[in-house]
Amino acid sequence: MARRSLICAGVSVLLALSPALATAAAADDSGDPQVRELGHEAERNLRDADSLRLTLTDRTASGSRDKLAWMDMFLDRGGNCAASFRMGGNGGTFDLVKRGDEVWMKADWDYWKSQLPGENETADLVRNRWVHGTTDESAFKDFTGACDLKAFQEDITVDVTSNEGRTTVDGTDVYRLSGEEEGIPTTVYITVDSPHLLIRSDQKGDGTDRTAGVSDYNKPVPSGTPGPRDSVDLSDLEQESGQSGQSG
Question: Does residue 119 lie in a domain region?
């Protein structure tokens, strides 16, 4: 199997993250104007951030190998990112690092087995190894958009209508604001102190149960990258796979 198909299995998950993390409520003119302005300020701060940390827990995906169940992702407006992902069921895990036009991806056995059923040889070849390439290569070109914070920011709205009071999230005083997104009850948590920042969004109802977190506003993405001894270049992997196939 071509390595480009193998790598794109991971890319397809990343491209679905922006709509999953979008934090929106009913876009109408109802509700408390002060609450709506608070949401709009948090939206502006989110859109203006140079870098963010995004987390996602989707409890409804826990039994589905082809759905993302958990994510922890640092990304910035320069297209750099460092992230870990866990699929539902026994779909495995994978990690991603992107700096500039260089990309590294590492996945475990369960992930490759779920993405490449019946291809034990290929799964054995790449499991727990950092596969390295650049966005100039067709196998990695889609990572350019998947790791770009600007693309995520363009899809975000924070349009809340009701104030449910104050509470704390991880020791931070927040307003608990509510609304709906596509008919799903949505609760967002925005810091009481200025600048008002969105730090969490809960969606529960109609078969949806997920929590998204936003933190580390404007903090640099971790800059560490896998070393040459810990990774294999895509071109070398293709050659190694070909030799393995000939010996078999």
Answer: yes
